[in-house]
# Entry
Amino acid sequence: MKDLNWYFPKSIAEAVDLVQQGKIFPHAGGTGLLSRGFTGINGLVDLSRLPLHYSKIENDSVEIGSMNTYAEAVSVLMKVDPEHILVKSLRNSANTPLRNRITIGGSIAYFPPWSDLMSALLALDADVMLIGENDGQFPVEEYVNDKDVRDKSLIIAVKFNLSNWRSYHYRDIRTKSDYPAFNITILLKQSLNKIEDCRVIIVGTGKKYSRLTNIEKYLINRDVGKINIEEIEKLVEVKFAGKRIDDPEYSSYLAGVELGRGVEQILRGH
Ligand SMILES: Cc1cc2nc3c(=O)[nH]c(=O)nc-3n(C[C@H](O)[C@H](O)[C@H](O)COP(=O)(O)OP(=O)(O)OC[C@H]3O[C@@H](n4cnc5c(N)ncnc54)[C@H](O)[C@@H]3O)c2cc1C
# Structure
């Protein structure tokens, strides 16, 4: 194995200088780097001494520094909204030691197909705050889809607004310690008997993630009494692919069933 240079910057500016050199990667929780391997990496920048371990909640805006772990992000949100979608999606992720290690920033940058974080962040229309080659605030979706935005930039924080979404999260696992084959986030706003707004994201599909706009269209402005769960299940047409998916057709069927159950659960209010 080749030697890796480790860097221990004490300021964000120092870390950014290193990351911009290329082939020098940030090290956050280290859990993704270990599974990825070190091909193409000449050095690692330890982020643990940087002031990225903060959280801010002002009015309805939440900002979570990139070095917060899954467990810490859950604690922050529990104080303001115990029913928040990120509480639901992260509190059962992986296992306790890993939730104390996996960071928010590392998980956005790495975005594995089993991510419990990303379906919620995409549904929330969250932003990432970057510094480096690209400075500023970018939609998470743009960060995910545009390599030029990601390249040689450090994630400082993730930002989103608190809103009165009713939410549901499903992880498709066979055993408690399994990586999810896919996971589903549903956000829904209801006023009186009508669905006002809705977001549906599945992470783990062949395209890595899919936004189910046809389900959103079916639900938005629909009278709650006229929602037919079987129709929703039939509208789910997601393509699964890859080694982790034994039977893509079965996974697609399962996603439909679980999505229907999710909508039903939100409408019942528990
Ligand atoms: C056994 C196991 C089970 C797991 N199960 C789940 C699960 O069920 N659900 C789930 O959501 N996750 C799970 N994970 C975690 C997931 O697979 C990744 O390992 C994790 O999201 C990476 O986060 P990290 O903080 O460890 O990042 P690192 O490993 O430190 O970094 C990952 C990548 O992101 C880059 N990076 C890190 N921080 C930044 C930053 N601030 N700015 C820019 N780039 C950065 C690194 O250079 C690297 O390329 C599991 C991991 C393991 C090992």
About this structure: The first helix runs from residue 12 to 19.
